[in-house]
Specification:
Number of domains: 1
Strand content: 5-15%
Order of helices and strands: HHEEEEEHHHHHH
Distance between the termini: 33 Å
Helix content: 40-55%
Largest sheet: 3 strands, antiparallel
């Protein structure tokens, strides 16, 4: 990915309120599916959203991103949590999934627009290193990646995650990013590590 191709993907996604609203609508649809499915015990689900500090999205949308949509079983003996998958959040991280992907995709020195984004979002170098470690170690060893890795030919370099993964989803990069967000849905709730 050249620098000239990096700039549009970062600017068109990170700063586009319409795209973030689309992500919210997708999450709301995923939540509906979770609610319809109900609890594993057969009980009804009540809204029990998690508060989130919205980082990595436009300021005007922070209210829409201040909660991770979730449920809990209405039965007193169960009370089990049911959190749907998400195209906005990666597990318990406060930064949006998009920011985690784009900022950990390359060393910031080689991607000036991402460096500007990291500075504007106040993402520390230590946080970036932790994200890169999650991609190259935790995600690379996950059951999701083990199950899906064979569909990528030639095999992807896990040490270059998430960049090699994003590149594998083809052009244009904005569409590849959308496809990657959908691919990562299982990782947004609970990521089991393969043994």
């Amino acid at each position: 990915m050249s620098r000239s191709r990096d700039q549009p993907i970062v600017s068109c996604r990170i700063s586009d309120p319409k795209w973030f609203q689309q992500l919210l609508r997708i999450d709301q649809e995923l939540v509906k599916q979770t609610r319809i499915a109900g609890c594993v015990c057969g009980g009804r689900l009540h809204v029990a959203n998690y508060p989130r500090k919205p980082r990595g999205c436009p300021r005007e949308l922070r209210d829409d991103f201040s909660q991770r949509l979730s449920f809990c079983c209405a039965r007193d003996l169960c009370r089990k949590r049911s959190t749907s998958t998400s195209v906005r959040f990666l597990g318990g991280r406060v930064y949006k999934l998009l920011a985690v992907m784009l900022l950990s995709a390359r060393p910031l020195e080689r991607m000036p627009c991402a460096a500007e984004l990291a500075t504007s979002l106040a993402v520390s170098r230590r946080t970036l290193l932790r994200w890169r470690q999650w991609w190259t170690q935790t995600f690379a060893q996950s059951a999701l990646w083990r199950a899906e890795s064979a569909r990528f030919m030639p095999p992807l370099d896990v040490q270059q995650f998430p960049l090699s993964l994003l590149t594998a989803f083809g052009d244009p990069l904005a569409s590849a990013l959308d496809r990657l967000l959908l691919f990562l849905l299982p990782a947004t709730v609970r990521l089991s590590v393969a043994v």
